[in-house]
Amino acid sequence: MNKLHKMASSCSYILFIFNFLLFPISISSSNGDFHNELLESITVSRMEKTTHLHFYFQDVVSGNNPTAVKIIGDGYGFGTTFMMDDVLTQGPERDSKVIGRAQGMYSSAAQNDIAFLMIVTFVFTEGLYNGSSVSMLGRNHVVDDEREMPIVGGSGVFRFARGYALAHTVWFDPKTRDASVEYNVSVVHF
Ligand SMILES: *[C@@H]1O[C@H](CO)[C@@H](O)[C@H](O)[C@H]1NC(C)=O
Ligand SMILES: *[C@@H]1O[C@H](CO)[C@@H](O)[C@H](O)[C@H]1NC(C)=O
Question: In the chain, what is the greatest distance between 2 CA atoms, to the nearest angstrom?
Answer without folding.
Answer: 74
